[in-house]
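ugh finaly. both done.
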Amino acid sequence: MLYELNNCRDGAPATYNTTVDISENDGILTFKFFAEHTEFYCPHHNYNDIHSEGDACEVLIGSDPERRFYYEIEISPENKLMCALMENKGDDENGVPILEINFVEECFVESNVTRNENSYEATVRFPKDKILSGDGEIYFNAYRLETDGGEMDKHLFALNPTMKPKFHRPSHFLWLKAFLD
């Protein structure tokens, strides 16, 4: 099913058209993003670089009942991936999430990016059983960062907006089964 992302900070419609199509087929989860208006800013060019320092789409997904451990999958307009098991240790005194990043060395995510003049489609697919971070039901949220050519955190879009300037808000994760056909 196709869903629109909204402004992460206030829930308003996204500044630029951004959608995600979510599906499952034979145990393979697929997230296909459409990102309109982009300058394709990508400061990093390798697997397990932090691509969210530029333009990127990402999925946070897991099954830990406490929502403390989950996977972060980022894809850049250059089709470069980051895949990490995150540990969310709560917020610091300024309300910023404290995260421990454990990069996944053997990537289990397949990806594809198709770029047009000012938009791109980014697809990530992976076996559902590879993202289990606990024995609970699978939860997730989908996001996009658009820098307008290099200004960090310029635009943050989310399927379920966190109402904060950050994505790592487990209370805003959604149950995956509600989004599958």
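ok and the 2nd:
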Amino acid sequence: MKYFYFILFALTAISCKDHSAKNNNPVNKKTTAWLPSAEYTPSNPLAAKLNDSAAVLQIRAVQDPTLDESTREEMLDMAFQMLNEALKLDPKYRLAMTNLSAVYLEKRDTAKALELMFRRLELDPEMAEGWQAAGVFTDMTGDSVNAKKYYEKSIEVFNSRRKMCKEYSVPEDLLYYYDNWS
């Protein structure tokens, strides 16, 4: 089950959205759709460092079978503190929100994990993985009716994103981008 959550949150790194409108890059819009979005570039570089360090601690706490329970809890507490600090530095840092939600889930605080995921979804309602996570978290609270609604929303958003990705699959545009990037 722990691996499921790790994979779930790792999927948030995959996105096919067109972010070229936010960036003044003169390159064809079709070639910039896969560039990292704002969720990966917080306004404060220290927030990114805190998030990355917390993610390492969290992953180790979840995946390392040699850790005893107290060490695991200590690592999750450190990750929790780092992620909260990252969000103080940049309250709209969506990747830190997602990672903190995962820490809450590991600490068995499903309500807080769900609350944070909805906060994330307010900023990025087109994140299918977020709606899926909201469904899983809601299901964990025993509310299968609302969980189903979130799963359906996830499928709807994902299908919409999939259709959009077909517009950005022209290899010549990618080659043009690489040639102009260097």
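summary for the 2nd one i guess: Residues 4-35, 170-182 have pLDDT under 50 and may be disordered.
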